[in-house]
Design goal:
With 382 residues, the chain is an alpha/beta fold. It is 38% helix and 25% strand. Bound molecules: iron/sulfur cluster. Iron/sulfur cluster binds next to loops.
Amino acid sequence: MAGLLHDRDTAVYVHFPWCAKKCPYCDFATRAVEPASIDHDGYADAIARDLENRRAQLEGRRLVSVFFGGGTPSLWSAAALGRTLERIRGAFGSELDDLEVTAECNPSSLSAEQAQAFAAAGINRTSIGVQSLRERHLQFLGRLHDGAGALRALRDAKATGVRVSADLMFGMRDQRDVLADVDVLIEEGLDHVSAYALTIEPGTQFGTLQRLGKLETANEDDYARMFLEAEARFGAAGLAHYEVSNYARPGEEARHNQHYWRGGDYLALGAAAVGCLSEDGTARRWRNQSDPQRYLAEPIEEWSEALDTSERIQEALMLGLRTTEGVDLDGLAARVGVDPRAGRERALERGFERGDLSLDGAVLTVPRERWLRLDGIVAALF
Ligand code: SF4
C-alpha cells in the first residue's frame, strides 16, 4: 500500500556544501576545503536567516523529518548543527512524534566523539558513506578512508544508540568483493543499507577519463548479476529491497526519503539546496544560491520554477515507481487536480500486458523483478 501523505507534512533538507576532498565521480554541489577553514557558526547563522525568510510559507505545516546532507555534514561542528536543528524545529507549529533526524557522515570525519556529539545534538539516524570495505575500490573512488576506518565509524555510530545506515557502491570493475562487503554489513547488524550504482557524470574526473577511454567499470551483465545477488543476500538476512537502491528491515526504512518518494513537500536550507513546496494545488521548486561564500553573505534563491500539473505527475511517477509502495493514482489525482491515467491509458495497458506494471486497487507499481529495467518502463509512460 502507498503511504498516506498529508499535504501540510513537510520535510527539511539542509545542505552542507563542503568536503575535505572532491571524489572523482562526484557531481554534487560540494567544494573541497581545508576543514579548519569552515565557518561553522557563520553557516548556521546564514541558514537561520534563510529559515526566517521562509517563515510565512511554513504557517500550518507539520515537520516530518530533517536530513543534513552534503557534502560532508560530519565536518560541521555539532554545536552549530544542533543550533540549526533547534531553529528548524522552532519554526514549525507541530512535528511528527519520533521525528527522524538524519546526518550523512563520512568515516574520515566521524570520530567516536563526533558521533556522540551529533547524537547529543539531536541526530537520531546516521547515514555513513562506506562505499566499499576494500582498499583498491576505495582508492579507485578517491575516498579518504580505508575499510577498517569504515567499520570503526559504523560501530562508533551504533554505540551511540542512533539508527545507522551504510552507503555501498556497485558498478566498479571486478565487483566480486562487493558481495563480500554485503555479507560484512549484514554481520555488523545494520538495519538499513543504500546500495547505489556508480554513475559516470560529465564534468567529473571520471567523466573525462571515460571520454578518453581510460575508465574501466562493470559491464551491464556483471552489474545485473551483482544487483540480483545482493538483493538475495539482503533478503535472506531480513532486509527488504523497498526502493531500487535501498534495503531495510521492516520499520527501519528512511522516512525522510519515503516522504520524498511519495511526492511530499520539502523545504531546502543551505547553499545549493533544492526545495519544493505546494500551496493551493500549485507547486514551486527552487534552488538556493549555490556558491557557499555568497550564501554566507546573503542566503537567497538563485533559481525557481512553477511546476505544471504534467511535471508534477511525471515526477510523482518517476519517484514512486522506484519503490515497493508504488504510486497511489487516486491520491496523486487529488493532489494535483488531474487524473494521471488520463492520456496514458494505452501506455498503462501495454505495461500491464508485458508484466512491467501492476495495479492493486489504485496503487501502481513496477514489480521488483523488473527493477533492472525501471528507467525504460517509466519512460514509456511519458
Ligand atoms: S565525500 Fe561525498 S559529497 Fe563529498 S565529494 Fe565525495 S562523494 Fe561528493
